[in-house]
Amino acid sequence: xxxxxxxxxxxxxxVKQVTEKGYSIAEVATRLGTTTHSLYAWIERYDQxxxxxxxxxxxxxxxxxxxxxxxxxxxxxxxxxxxxxxSLSILFFRFLW
Length: 97
Description:
DNA binding, mainly alpha, Arc Repressor Mutant, subunit A
């Protein structure tokens, strides 16, 4: 049989009291009238959501970096072909002077 249902805002606030404000799980659970088991489950769910958002952000930054790298490689090889440059080192040497 399931217990009492809590709104999502209530759960998020309870998790913030533990993770951001530093209260103990037992203290928050007692004060809010929930079980420590429920609070642990909410914290786990909240942390998984946070890590997924961070992971998505990291992967989009990495994807942008790889796209830029690929584009620069394409331009470099294109110019080598266009101007009949046999070695990339010659191309870079000329840009330095």
